[in-house]
Amino acid sequence: MNVSLRKINAIIVLKFQTIMSNTSVILTPVLALVFAFAMRHLMPEVDVNEAGIFFSTGAFVLSFGLIFNIAIAGIAMSSSPLAEEKEKNTLRVLMTSSVSGLDYLIGTIIPPLVILTITNLLLIPASGIAYADVPLLSYLVMTTVASFISLLIGYVVGIFSQNQTQSALISMPVTLLFTSVPVIRFLQNDLSYLVDYTYTGVLTNFASTLFAEGQYNWNLFDTSVLGAYLLLSAAIFVLAYKRNGLDR
Question: Which residues contact 22 (CB under 8 A, 6 or more apart)?
Answer without folding.
Answer: 80, 81, 84
